[in-house]
């Protein structure tokens, strides 16, 4: 039993918006499935760090959810900036229940226990512009991350933290997000969002005692990364 992670699947089984037009993304959904089935068992857990489906609603994303349901393992879904189907946790869980998507779980202001770990996280937000509206969103995301980490703390288990946006990117630092992670003693954080040339600026290493790792699907060559045995 193990925990794997991958972000930015950008599945498009329900809507005609494939990523194959971009360099390196040829046959990406086929590659995701082949790599997934090659290494992941029904006893494993896979954390998806946002931008899972191009569907604009739960109904449009259903084909992508069904694809995930068909794959081995339990899946924990985090919100990304392109997850337009995302709604309230109650609606999403009711939708999953109604369609027999029992291997899918939502990470939203909560913590999910998996393989003896507390899975926590939030979407995060952009931070390089300094726009007042962005500051408000970052503050809200920091609050959500804090709620999730508090739930994780209550479990008494080791915590793994997931974000969609990178909290550290080049010279840019998302201070409120980092502060919350330091407050709760987070030591490992995984994030997505970055693609192509942007990956060259990604932090894959330590910052203020937190180990960061980029897990966007093209960076991982569409092969889920094992992060915990």
Automatic annotation (TrEMBL):
Q: Which GO terms describe its molecular function?
A: hydrolase activity
The record lists the membrane-crossing segments as none
Give residue ranges for domain Calcineurin-like phosphoesterase. Answer: 1-196
Any signal peptide, and if so, which residues?
A: none
Query: A Pfam family name for this chain?
Result: Metallophos
Judging by the UniProt lineage, the source's domain of life is Bacteria
The UniProt entry, under SUPFAM superfamilies, shows: Metallo-dependent phosphatases
What name does UniProt use for this protein?
Answer: Metallophosphoesterase
Question: What species is this protein from?
Answer: Youxingia wuxianensis
Organism placement in taxonomy: Bacteria, Bacillati, Bacillota, Clostridia, Eubacteriales
């Amino acid at each position: 039993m193990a925990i794997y992670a991958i972000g930015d699947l950008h599945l498009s089984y329900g809507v005609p918006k494939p990523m194959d037009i971009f360099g390196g993304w040829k046959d990406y959904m086929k590659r995701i499935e082949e790599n997934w089935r090659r290494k992941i068992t029904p006893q494993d857990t896979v954390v998806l760090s946002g931008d899972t489906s191009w569907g604009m609603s739960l109904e449009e994303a259903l084909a992508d959810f069904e694809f995930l349901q068909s794959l081995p393992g339990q899946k924990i879904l985090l919100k990304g900036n392109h997850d337009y189907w995302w709604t309230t946790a109650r609606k999403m869980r009711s939708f999953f229940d109604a369609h027999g998507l029992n291997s899918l779980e939502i990470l939203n202001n909560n913590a999910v226990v998996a393989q003896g770990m507390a899975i926590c996280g939030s979407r995060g937000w952009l931070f390089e512009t300094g726009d007042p509206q962005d500051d408000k969103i970052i503050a809200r995301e920091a609050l959500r991350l804090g709620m999730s980490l508090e739930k994780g703390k209550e479990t008494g288990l080791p915590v793994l933290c997931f974000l969609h946006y990178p909290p550290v990117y080049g010279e840019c630092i998302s201070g409120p997000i980092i502060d919350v992670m330091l407050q709760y003693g987070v030591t490992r954080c995984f994030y997505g969002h970055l693609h192509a040339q942007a990956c060259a600026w990604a932090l894959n290493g330590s910052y203020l005692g937190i180990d960061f790792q980029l897990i966007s699907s093209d960076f991982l060559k569409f092969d889920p990364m094992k992060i915990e045995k």
